[in-house]
Amino acid sequence: MTDQAYNPNNTCYRHPDRQSFVLCQRCGRTICPECQTPAAVGVHCPECVREQRAQFAANRRASGAPSGFTVARRRFAMLDQKGTVVIIAISALIWLLDQVSGRALTSWLAFYTPAIGTQPWRLVTGLFVHSSFLHIAFNMFAVFIFGRILENMLGTWRFLALYFLAGLGGDLAVAWLSPGTPVVGASGAIFGLFAAFFIIQRSLGYNAVQLLVVMGLNLVIGFLPGTQISWQAHVGGIVIGFVTGYVFSKTRNVRKQRLQTGLLIVEVVVLILAIYAAFISIGGLSVWGA
Predict the structure, then answer these.
(1) Which residues are listed as membrane-spanning (predicted)?
(2) pLDDT tens by residue, 183-224
């Protein structure tokens, strides 16, 4: 039996000693973070980047048109972890505004099942609201650590899809198991990152049991009395993280990108419909129509 950890298809074509999950969106070769150049969709390898730049330079010389990118946009385009940076920045900004407004944003943005009929944005915005400085500090530290790793492995758009799908998974579990409880925080999405990272590491041939133990210990903490932690969101995030990580591991090939996109869309639709089914089950339909 071949050990996947030494499968050449899982190693960078320029650095055979480096494992990677990311493929060049143009040629399909496996590339490590050092060799990845962010593109409009996914990342490109050094050879494809050189070809594109040469073609761009030739077209620009022929037309004489100036570049439309500003310095700020160019610098942002050079970031390797745009999604991670944006999530942390938005979360920090909302926390600061929430403190200044006397926690007004919490009551308007928190996920709350009875309110999603008329305020559907709560499905997503609850991920960016936090109850205290320690709450946001610990959550954003986890996003900073695992977000950068996963974004380098998956690419920005896949990483963001995973993050928000896991967040919806947390919403779903809360909607069915604790519908009358307002919930804030990114922990459901973060537990989804843990679960997906475990699945992806296993698909690449690594032993990720230690990560599973850490995830289990953190999950147990949520069940301790007096912690005021939404264990339901954690469980929902983990389940969807496992599912999404499995989808990524099985549709890694460039030829399966349409299948991957389709499966992610199915996840979104099923999760949203299931959340609204919980909303209706608690009498939300009559409240919505009132």
Answers:
(1) 83-101, 121-147, 159-177, 183-200, 207-225, 231-249, 261-288
(2) 999 999 999 999 999 998 888 877 777 777 777 777 777 666
User: Residue 246 corresponds to which tokens in the numbers above?
Assistant: 């499995």
SS3 state at 110: coil
Strands 43-44 and 37-38: antiparallel
Residues 39 and 25: beta-carbon distance below 8 Å: yes
pLDDT tops 70 at residue 230: yes
* Rounded-to-integer distance, Cα 43 and Cα 76, Å: 15
> Cα separations (Å) of 175 from 172, 179, 271?
5, 4, 11
The answer to whether residues 151 and 162 touch, using CB atoms and an 8 Å cutoff, is: no
Task: Report CA torsion sign: 93, 130, 269, 38.
Answer: positive
Cβ count within 10 A of residue 209: 11
Sequence-distant (≥ 6) Cβ neighbours of residue 228 within 8 angstroms: none
**pLDDT tens digits, 115-174:** 999 999 999 999 999 989 999 999 999 999 889 889 988 888 999 999 999 999 999 999
Cα of 94 vs its chain's centroid, Å: 19
Q: Report which residue type is found at 164.
A: F
The tokens describing 181, both together, are 């409880």
CA distances from 259 to 40, 61, 173, 256, 266 (A): 20, 39, 26, 5, 10
**With contact defined as beta carbons under 8 Å apart, do 97 and 108 qualify?**
no
The three-class DSSP label of residue 97 is: helix
> Tokens in use for 28?
């399909």
